[in-house]
Amino acid sequence: MTHYIFDMDGTLFQTNAVLAHALEDVFHELRQTGRWEGETPVALYQQIMGVSLPEVWQTLLPDFSAADQQAADQKFRRSIEQAVKAGHGRLYPGTVELLTRLKQAGHFVYIASNGWPSYLSAIVTTYGLEAYIDHVYSIEDIRSGDKSALVREICKTHAISSGYVVGDRLSDFKAAHTNGLLAIGCQFDFAQEQELAVADRVVNELSAVY
User: Which structural domain, as residue segments, surrounds residue 125?
Assistant: First the structure.
């Protein structure tokens, strides 16, 4: 039996399908109140996908107060969750088939995500993934906001000493190596070539993971 720890956004879930709309909701309101000019920085968010939400808003709204960043964050969370629950998102092709094969072979499957708990729950519930995932872990489950620390906690909880972290960004690969696991890089929407070079193996589709 092997342990597989999956990232969610950009690995199993096509976040692009709901990201732009949710961001547009936030920045439309900022424009309406005269606090933002110009286009919604979707491309910038896509560049930094994989960092924690506080880091997102510090990057997208660097001149805003902490309170205003938090207000934007709350609106974004509500909007993206509503989009997921309405079925506007998509899993990457082969997600369910891969998870089915892993479970049928007796392997353990976990999620380690920078997403927040209710968002992850919405994805798992909306797309019927409960039967395939042993436990879902959010970055908000730990204080540090660090992906490596989150994976460390998963390894400690489940006595994991070997296995895989499957993800698309450098934070996933570092989390694997820091904890003595192998990193499988997914060359999908948010992936960057220089980061994928750190992974032990790179796949172009989920069917190649297992």
Answer: 3-14+90-208
The pair phi, psi for residue 53, each rounded to 5°, is: -60, -40
Task: Mark whether 44 and 57 lie in a shared domain.
Answer: yes
d(CA 162, CA 148): 15
- Structurally, the chain folds into a number of domains equal to 2
- On whether both 9 and 66 belong to a single domain, the answer is no
Task: Return all residues near 53 (Cβ < 8 A) that are at least 6 apart.
Answer: 73, 76, 77, 114, 116
pTM comes to: 0.93
What is the per-residue pLDDT across 23-65, written as a single tens digit (0 to 9) for each?
Answer: 999 999 999 999 999 999 999 998 898 788 899 999 999 999 9
Instruction: Work out the pLDDT band at 2, boundaries 50, 70, 90.
Output: very high
State in Å, rounded, how far the first CA of the chain is from the last one: 13
Axis crossing angle, helix 53-60 with helix 66-85, rounded to the nearest 10? 120
- Both structure tokens of 199: 């992974």
Give the strands of the sheet with 201-203, arranged side by side: 135-138, 108-113, 3-6, 164-167, 182-186, 201-203
